[in-house]
Design brief:
The protein is α/β, with parallel strands linked by helices. It folds into three domains: 160 residues, Sulfate adenylyltransferase (Roll), CATH 3.10.400.10; 211 residues, Rossmann fold (3-Layer(aba) Sandwich), CATH 3.40.50; 176 residues, P-loop containing nucleotide triphosphate hydrolases (Rossmann fold), CATH 3.40.50. 38% of the residues lie in helices and 16% in strands. The strands form four sheets. Strands 1, 2, 3, 4, 5 and 6 form a six-stranded mixed sheet that branches. A five-stranded parallel sheet has the order 9-8-7-10-11, sandwiched between helices. Strand 10, helix 11 and strand 11 form a beta-alpha-beta unit. Helix 5 runs antiparallel to helix 6, helix 9 packs antiparallel against helix 13 and helix 16 packs parallel to helix 17. The N terminus is likely disordered. Bound molecules: 3'-phosphate-adenosine-5'-phosphate sulfate.
């Protein structure tokens, strides 16, 4: 029996100032230095201002930060597992000191809050990664963000909130912690069990959540994350349309759907702790933790970062102190003979267990294959099929990378012609030289300019891919990190095939079709890739082609076969 009594949730630290004060603050802030919040900071600040991150009163200061990363506690002793920090570039940090008031704005310049800076410091990001995520391998999305995307300086301080970041979608499903607490109270929801998800929900999830709610005799809150999730996840618009179908599967008046504007860190056990504190703040009494909670996927050696039930183990230790009860759950699987779902640890011997993994589900979606009724609801599947048409109806990008003179352009041209011969998609070639003439004419070959050039190519190819076309890119693209960012961007919209044209430097130099290598050796051309500027070879491209071993015809044919094998060409 639960001993928790209403009202639930403990003290809420809402950080928005009163209406009259907001106007005064807006007027004062015109004289403050401004910081345009990054996408993740915008999600974090929304959670801070609504009190979803209670007891935090702003972005962490240095002492709290150090205590959180080391001991999962604020300096006050209260449990808080995730560092919520405001990262800025050196140039910006140079303009402020402790005590400065900074106007924090959204990308349109709307004033969201004012921070009074109490601390400015340069974190040891590797240490933070190892303490918080138990790894500094940037295959972990949380580590990748921290090491490769977050700015180098943190500023901490209390917030005075002016207004919440604007959202124009699914307004009826957006509730602050106060809204939800009031709704629960009004509806007499005495016990509420929350379910966290970043994926579409199918029958197994419906069974799991329904059983969990029954078990603890509670109402159910389905609270999917709509902020940042794991790169490659299904977009929140499609997911929410699916959840809206799914909530109809529960008995009337038992279940509520509400969106969580959280930027996840995929931090496994620590993240589960964080999620449960957040749910307590929203007024929930129970929280479901299943297998692989907030899992970051595999590390660069192909191993799991965390054990499948690590999150449950950690939360079991802290749930009383946090003040929310965990409802641990095993994976649900379908038993054919009984035509019913059961937790994986409650299967009788000899029964036939059916399961379709997330990867297999995506494969079937990609290839337009059958998805059985026992697995999901028809409405959910057709919603997802609308968003994810089979691969042969999707766009794709073939991204060549390799040294100057390696043969990228020749193969790219051959590929373009072959794809046009096959038909069905508009084909666009973004060749290195062509792009430099039309899209990047003002850029040189410094690291910064090369990155900009590749980002532009990535953006254009992403748009082409999104609208169902075929983009062929053939820049040198010498840097791993930039190629990775482009892959991430384009994969959101469709297929991405990286082709490493691995023709060695000696051969490229000997061919020297444009006479550039001779000039580079003579020092006439500076920062020349392979001679006076680095080329970082891709480690895991989809294909590697050495033009010493195959003709442009053969090379482009191999790519066509690969595209066929992946389902992009039917
Ligand atoms: S990058 O690094 O991806 O932005 O380079 P990219 O835009 O593909 O370069 C296009 C062509 O520029 C010529 N070129 C140089 N390449 C490398 N380093 C230096 N400094 C340089 N200066 C001019 C070169 O011919 C590239 O064409 P390709 O087709 O690769 O030979």
């Amino acid at each position: 029996m639960s001993t928790i009594t209403a009202p639930h949730g403990g003290t809420l630290k809402e950080l928005l100032v009163k209406e009259g004060q907001a106007e005064a603050l807006k007027a004062q802030a015109r004289d403050f230095i401004s910081w345009d919040l990054t996408e993740r900071q915008l999600w974090d600040i929304e959670m801070l201002l609504t009190g979803a991150f209670s007891p935090l009163e702003g972005f962490l200061g240095k002492a709290d930060y150090e205590s959180v990363i080391k001991d999962m506690r604020l300096t006050s002793g209260t449990i808080w597992p995730m560092p919520i920090t405001l990262d800025v570039p050196e140039a910006f940090a140079g303009k402020i000191t402790e005590g400065t008031k900074v106007a924090l704005r959204d990308p349109e310049g709307v004033l969201i809050a004012v921070i009074t800076v109490s601390d400015i410091w340069r974190p040891d990001k590797k240490l933070e990664a190892n303490l918080v995520f138990k790894s500094d391998d940037d295959a972990h999305p949380g580590v990748n963000y921290l090491i490769n995307k977050a700015h180098p300086v943190y500023i901490g301080g209390k917030l005075e909130g002016v207004e919440l970041p604007a959202h124009y979608d699914f307004k009826q499903l957006r509730n602050t912690p106060r809204d939800l607490r009031e709704k629960f109270k009004k509806q007499g929801w005495y016990k509420v069990v929350a379910f966290q998800t970043r994926n579409p929900m199918h029958r197994a999830h419906q069974e799991l959540t329904f059983r969990a709610a029954q078990m603890v005799e509670a109402n159910l809150l389905i609270q999917p994350v709509v902020g940042m999730t794991k790169p490659g996840d299904i977009d929140h618009y499609s997911r929410i349309r699916c959840y809206e179908h799914l909530v109809k599967q529960y008995p009337e008046q038992t279940t509520m759907l509400s969106l969580l504007p959280l930027a996840m860190r995929m931090g496994g056990p620590r993240e589960a702790m964080w999620h449960s504190i957040i749910r307590k703040n929203y007024g929930c009494t129970h929280f479901i933790v299943g297998r692989n909670h907030a899992d970051p996927g595999k590390n660069s050696k192909g191993e799991a970062f965390y054990g499948p039930y690590d999150a449950q183990e950690m939360l079991a230790k802290y749930q009383d102190e946090i003040g929310i009860k965990m409802v641990p759950f095993q994976e649900m699987v379908y038993v054919e003979e009984k035509a019913q779902y059961f937790p994986a640890d409650q299967i009788e011997k000899g029964m036939t267990v059916l399961n379709i993994s997330g990867t297999e589900f995506r494969r079937r979606l990609m290839l337009g294959l059958d998805i059985p009724d026992w697995f999901s609801y028809r409405e959910v599947v057709s919603e997802l099929r609308r968003t994810y048409p089979p691969r042969h109806e999707q766009g794709f990008t073939v991204f060549f990378t390799g040294l100057s003179g390696s043969g990228k352009s020749t193969i790219a041209n051959a590929l373009m012609v072959k794809l046009m011969e096959i038909g069905g998609r508009a084909v666009t070639l973004l060749d290195g030289d062509m792009v430099r003439k039309n899209l990047s004419s003002e850029l040189g070959f410094s690291r910064e300019h090369r990155d900009l050039n590749i980002q532009r190519i990535g953006f254009v190819a992403g748009q082409i891919t999104k609208y169902g076309g075929a983009a062929i890119c053939a820049p040198i693209a010498p840097y791993t990190q930039t190629r990775r960012a482009v892959r991430e961007e384009i994969s959101r919209h469709g297929g991405f095939l990286e082709v490493f044209v691995s023709t060695p430097l000696e051969v490229c130099e000997e061919r020297d079709r444009k006479g550039l290598y001779a000039k580079a050796r003579a020092g006439i051309i500076k920062e020349f890739t392979g001679i006076s500027d680095p080329y970082e070879a891709p480690e895991t491209p989809e294909m590697t082609i050495d033009t010493r071993e195959c003709s442009p015809d053969e090379a482009s044919q191999r790519i066509i076969l690969k595209l066929e094998q992946l389902g992009f060409i039917k």
